[in-house]
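Tokens in:
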């Protein structure tokens, strides 16, 4: 009996929308406060460093996806170019880190819309509903993401305009330059850029992937960089670095500083929509990576099923939803950002190494870009808060032990 396959239904616009929806939702309403606390007035320098590293990673992902248009992203690329262990490391870091991101996005949504004391139940409900949307099929996911992206961009335009209209809070160079703080901010802000990975992980469902994916990834990343730069300037203008660092909702506070009371609900609606968009795309991407890993027995084979009618990895997505719901019950929003960044930076380290190994016949970008991406991933990962680094190392070690034990058991059974 032939196993049902994923269907190629996504065009360029769909792929860009999914990547942009992931990046905007993950960053604009969540990351600026901890990044400002680390970098102060030099927040935009950290943003620029994160963008450079993200560009190196994006070009590596695009080059690899054109040759390996299958589900799984860097997990599949690492296996094909570097070997099974490298692929497993990438997949494990992606699934664990992005599962934490799902919880962070659900909690961010609830923080903007839930009555006091109801944040966790609302976050759990959001996870359950969006997992259901994903189970209906990938075209439903793409359509919903496009609608959310339009809403979010409109709300961000209002918030940024208010931020620039507010009285100047502090000059941008008011705080002393701290290299470690700027790198830490870049590592945290990288969390916001990681959404373009969703395009690569959906490689088995994109039409003409060799042409579409290399175009969609840099396009989505470029649009996100412009949005982040504008919003970051607006927040710093209205609140200053100290005000931004103290704020739980920097863009909403920037609107308040401008005296645009009518616009604050608009920004909150945008924040809620952005978090939902990111969560929707994250569930889709993680489900595909889990599917790819289960096909190779790096996760339980039970998760490798594809629904015969909807053409989605339904068991993997249901398992993911249950795991996210469990995390939401105990998670801390800001702590999840650093942990997720550590895992995703290691994921992209493998992608850069895999792209560096590719031959000239399939090369689209110079090797020095992969060197920049790989070195940047290592530097930003080590610059993260020590709790994130320690937690990430422990989780990676657990994953390595899991696979090593499984391989030993399989060899003994032969």
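Residues out:
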């Amino acid at each position: 009996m032939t196993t049902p396959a994923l269907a190629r239904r996504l065009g360029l616009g769909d792929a860009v929308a999914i990547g942009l929806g992931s990046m905007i939702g993950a960053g604009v309403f969540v990351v600026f406060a901890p990044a400002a606390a680390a970098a102060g007035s030099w927040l935009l320098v950290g943003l620029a460093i994160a963008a450079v590293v993200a560009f190196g990673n994006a070009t590596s992902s695009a080059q690899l996806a054109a040759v390996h248009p299958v589900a799984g992203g860097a997990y599949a690329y690492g296996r094909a170019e570097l070997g099974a262990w490298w692929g497993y490391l990438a997949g494990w870091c992606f699934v664990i880190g992005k599962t934490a991101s799902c919880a962070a996005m659900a909690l961010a949504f609830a923080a903007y819309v839930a009555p006091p004391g109801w944040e966790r139940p609302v976050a759990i409900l959001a996870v359950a509903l969006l997992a259901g949307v994903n189970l209906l099929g990938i075209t439903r996911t793409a359509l919903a993401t496009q609608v959310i992206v339009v809403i979010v961009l409109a709300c961000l335009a209002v918030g940024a305009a208010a931020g620039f209209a507010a009285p100047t809070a502090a000059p941008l160079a008011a705080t002393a330059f701290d290299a470690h703080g700027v790198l830490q901010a870049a590592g945290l802000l990288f969390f916001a850029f990681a959404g373009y990975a969703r395009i690569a992980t959906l490689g088995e469902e994109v039409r003409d992937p060799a042409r579409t994916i290399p175009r969609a990834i840099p396009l989505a990343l470029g649009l996100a960089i412009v949005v982040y730069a504008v919003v970051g300037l607006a927040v710093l203008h209205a609140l200053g670095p100290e005000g931004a660092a103290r704020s739980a909702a920097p863009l909403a506070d920037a609107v308040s500083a401008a005296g645009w009371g009518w616009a604050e609900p608009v920004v909150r609606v945008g924040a809620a929509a952005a978090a939902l968009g990111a969560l929707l795309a994250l569930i889709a991407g993680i489900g595909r990576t889990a599917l790819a890993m289960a096909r190779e027995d790096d996760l339980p084979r039970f998760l490798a099923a594809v629904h015969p009618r909807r053409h989605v990895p339904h068991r993997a997505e249901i398992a993911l939803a249950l795991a996210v719901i469990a995390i939401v019950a105990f998670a801390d929003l800001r702590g999840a950002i650093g942990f997720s960044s550590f895992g995703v930076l290691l994921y992209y380290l493998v992608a850069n190494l895999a792209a560096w190994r590719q031959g000239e016949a399939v090369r689209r970008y110079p090797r020095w870009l992969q060197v920049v991406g790989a070195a940047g991933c290592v530097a930003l990962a080590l610059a993260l808060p020590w709790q994130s680094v320690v937690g990430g190392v422990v989780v990676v070690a657990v994953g390595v032990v899991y696979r090593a034990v499984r391989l030993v058991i399989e060899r003994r059974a032969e």
